[in-house]
């Protein structure tokens, strides 16, 4: 009995040590009443956003939140025109300093290519990691802007050495491993850009970076730039036919050896580089998607001895198979235009045409108007589901009623399903079968030829079903 008590006590102590409470606070009256959500990257390949914590400003513009983290964690938050970033350090209180609030204007809201202004949060009374990273990046940006022409156009070695020396002198070696990795990779990335170095000339720097640093921005950004589309490029080089065959035969061993030999990599980062190359290759259209998925199922990746590689492999597989033809599409459950909660799988008699739209955009309005024609022609076989971005509900209802827009009309109030379906611009359209399985992940928009696309598909589908019934 005493042994059980001791073991239980040790487990409690271990759990407390594994994750330490960190208090995050802030105070800015401009943000009164707002809720902000902070995320981290799941991994450097898919860069899926994983929620870490949220903060709710009170009526005075203050908030306090407690976060449990077991290691230094990079987080970011998009709000207004900004993306704020900082490192949470276990057990260390952080009081965030927010910039003057500036919301997106109408053009920014509707621009699918909008990029937020990134900055490092200032922390009150901070002399540690976050201040050092923010100060280093500020100095880095100031020097690269000052010597922009000499660096990027003239490729001056002397000027690069001057910049590197100035940064090294201003930020000498510290006792902070995260900061040291940050400095090292930022300078190596700059050197790569200035002198147009090849991937195989610089990739070796990643051998020195362990898995705990992989989701930090200095690593993930440089790693992405180094290996972006490398499978496509390597397959076009002399001897590239061997790589194409390796992908086609799902031979992960040949691919891993290629990466080791060409890029002088070793350890776990070899598998990470392969995952990045497979991920980009999947979307390139130059390789059979089924073959790439088979490589991901190989023992070399799926059963890798590093749990982080196994986790990233599963994440890549999940991302690549999401909304693939034949897969089950996530059910959309939202309030309709009249405030009643409805789901996209409530009926199972017809195919489902799902249209994500924004009624404040003129192009979306025209597509929505044309849905009446689509319904008139294909209503016997097709259910229309419109998922509207939240705008002025009265104006939206007036528009939908006036133009007799058919189908189930749902309001994506918080944008959760637009994010889940990876909608980057409006309209975005999908076609599901009667069982809510994906037929087309990129169906044509109403005015862009959906009638013809659906007609051709339906004719072939009904023929196949009739033939199967006759067997």
Fold and architecture overview:
The protein is of the alpha/beta class and 471 residues long. The protein has three domains: 21-126, Sandwich (Immunoglobulin-like); 134-321, no CATH class; 333-469, Glutaredoxin, CATH 3.40.30.10. The chain has 19 helices and 16 strands. The chain has helices at 2-18, 106-110, 129-146, 148-153, 157-170, 177-194, 199-202, 217-227, 230-236, 240-248, 252-263, 268-284, 289-296, 299-302, 307-321, 362-378, 393-402, 416-420, 450-469; strands at 20-27, 35-41, 49-56, 62-69, 73-79, 82-88, 94-97, 117-120, 122-123, 333-335, 341-343, 351-357, 382-389, 408-412, 428-432, 438-440. A five-stranded mixed β-sheet has the order 14-13-12-15-16. It has a four-stranded mixed β-sheet with strand order 4-1-7-9. Strands 5-6-8 form a three-stranded mixed β-sheet. Strand 15 and strand 16 form a beta hairpin. Helix 6 (177-194) runs parallel beside helix 8, helix 9 crosses helix 10 and helix 12 packs parallel to helix 15 (307-321). It starts with a helix and ends with a helix. Mean pLDDT is 93; it is low at 4-17.
How big is the Rg? 26 Å
**Mean residue pLDDT:** 93
Structural class: alpha/beta
**Main beta sheet:** 5 strands, mixed
- pLDDT < 50 stretches: 4-17
Shape: globular
Work out the strand percent: 15-25%
What's the domain count? 3
């Amino acid at each position: 009995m005493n042994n059980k008590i001791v073991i239980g006590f040790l487990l409690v102590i271990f759990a407390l040590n594994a994750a330490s409470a960190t208090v995050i606070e802030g105070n800015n009256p401009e943000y009164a009443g707002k809720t902000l959500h902070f995320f981290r990257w799941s991994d450097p390949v898919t860069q899926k956003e994983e929620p870490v914590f949220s903060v709710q400003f009170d009526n005075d513009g203050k908030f306090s939140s407690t976060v449990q983290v077991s290691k230094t964690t990079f987080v970011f938050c998009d709000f207004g025109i900004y993306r704020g970033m900082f490192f949470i350090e276990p057990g260390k209180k952080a009081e965030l300093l927010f910039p003057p609030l500036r919301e997106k204007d109408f053009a920014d809201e509707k621009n699918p290519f909008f990029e937020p202004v990134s900055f490092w949060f200032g922390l009150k009374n901070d002399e540690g990691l976050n201040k050092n990273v923010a100060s280093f990046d500020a100095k880095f940006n100031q020097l690269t802007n000052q010597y922009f022409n000499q660096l990027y156009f003239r490729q001056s070695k002397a000027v690069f050495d001057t910049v590197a020396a100035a940064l090294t002198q201003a930020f000498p070696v510290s006792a902070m491993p995260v900061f040291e990795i940050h400095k090292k990779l930022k300078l190596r990335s700059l050197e790569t850009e200035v002198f147009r170095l090849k991937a195989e000339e610089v990739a070796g720097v990643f051998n020195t970076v362990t898995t705990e640093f992989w989701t930090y921005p200095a690593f993930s950004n440089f790693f992405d730039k180094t290996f972006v589309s490398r499978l496509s490029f390597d397959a076009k080089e002399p001897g590239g036919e061997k790589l194409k065959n390796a992908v086609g035969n799902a031979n992960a061993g040949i691919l891993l050896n290629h990466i080791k030999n060409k890029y002088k990599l070793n350890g776990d980062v070899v598998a990470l580089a392969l995952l990045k190359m497979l991920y980009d290759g999947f979307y390139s259209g130059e390789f059979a998607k089924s073959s790439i998925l088979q490589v991901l199922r190989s023992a070399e990746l799926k059963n890798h001895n590093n749990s982080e590689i196994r986790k990233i492999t599963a994440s890549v597989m999940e991302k690549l198979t999401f909304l693939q033809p034949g897969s089950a599409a996530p059910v959309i459950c939202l309030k309709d235009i009249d405030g009643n909660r409805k789901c996209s799988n409530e009926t199972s008699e017809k195919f489902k045409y799902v249209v994500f739209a924004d009624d404040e955009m003129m192009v979306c309005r025209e597509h929505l108007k044309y849905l009446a024609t689509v319904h008139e022609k294909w209503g016997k076989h097709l259910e229309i589901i419109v998922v509207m971005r939240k705008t002025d509900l009265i104006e939206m209802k007036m528009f939908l009623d006036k133009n007799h827009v058919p189908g189930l009309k749902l309001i994506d109030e918080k944008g959760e399903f637009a994010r889940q379906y990876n909608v980057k611009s409006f309209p975005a359209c999908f076609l599901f079968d009667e069982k809510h399985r994906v037929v087309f992940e990129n169906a044509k928009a109403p005015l862009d030829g959906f009638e013809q696309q659906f007609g051709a598909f339906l004719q072939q589908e009904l023929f196949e079903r009739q033939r199967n019934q006759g067997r």
